[in-house]
Description:
GO terms for molecular function: heme binding; iron ion binding; monooxygenase activity; oxidoreductase activity, acting on paired donors, with incorporation or reduction of molecular oxygen. The chain is α+β, with helices and mostly antiparallel strands. The protein has 15 helices and eight strands.
Amino acid sequence: MAGGVIKRRPAVLGVAGKLQLDRPAVRLLRRLRERHYGRPLRLRVPGRSVELALSGADVKRVLAGAPTPFSPSTVEKRAALGHFQPHGVLISGPADRPARRAFTEAVLQPGRPLHELAAPFAQAIAEEAAALRRETTLDWDTFTVTWWRVVRRVVLGSAARDDATLTDQLGRLRLDANWAYLHPKRKRLREEFKRRLTEHLDRAEPGSLAAVIAAEDTENTASAPDQVAHWLFAFDAAGMATFRTLAVLASHPAEQERAREEIDGTGPAQLSFLRACVLESVRLWPTTPMLLRETTEETSWGPAGTTVLIFTPFFHRDPELPYADRFEPDLWLDGRAAENPALVPFSAGPAICPGRDLVQFCASTMLANLLRGHRFEPVAGPVLSPERPLPATLDNFHLKLGLVG
């Protein structure tokens, strides 16, 4: 929580990385699971009904039960996301959610490994990645500037490439959102952010998601700025996952070489192994450490309004898993991950992230462009060796990689 649920705080995450705070959390939940035989555990939260899931079967049941009786719109999310996207699909009520979800899926096209605009997206990524390949070392600050240029081009068009003010405004709103209902809303800043975002959307630049939105002739385009604000927010986590994937590949020469062998062209491609590497990075270091659901009616979990908490690091790093602390991307290719309902890098069920395929495409394409003709090796940061258990908490803000060749 201190590290920032909606926007990460680098200083706090740096401390969390040094102390490896996820490790004792996983051990604690393992003890609780054994003590309570895997049954849900009611937490003592004054004035609230909160249940902690402790089994993979319960994770599957809860996530499959969206939006009723397990709604993704919880009191915590409404308070937090209301700072910058009060009409976003994730916190929409039952009357608005179906149409907004359908609109989001129509634009983001989940289920398609290659979006209809994969070609212009791949070109934008290649152009931006070229600047990074001219660096001798690559750190987070350098990478994230380029990543946000890619994101703005993909979502809003090339005219938005250098509009760092837009994402800076969103960043400030997201920092407020970390405090949820404990921080007053900056209405003026949100309106300025929305105005700026709407100007980019109204331009509907060909080759961008804004153009796809403009082609969606539905009443839900009115809430488009809020949906796009969420996509921009989610792409921040995607950048973290991409940089962490590059870092772990830099420390795993065999996997890095295998990824390089998959790169055989400059156009859009599915890049199955690199996608698996991204998924494995998110398994090892979930960008959404807590999945929350709120019951819409009385269930076996408690009365209506009960919050169900799924702590993903526990299920992704369960010590009973033979691959818990090692980098094993083949999990996502040979069916083992599909057999484990608790491995949920993009959530699961009807409320699964609708941008999952687009994110994997952008991340794997960025990695392909960086690895083409180059190798990376670690320069600074935690040890990510294949010869020892990988760290439970990974601070991406202080990683540094060297380019070789």
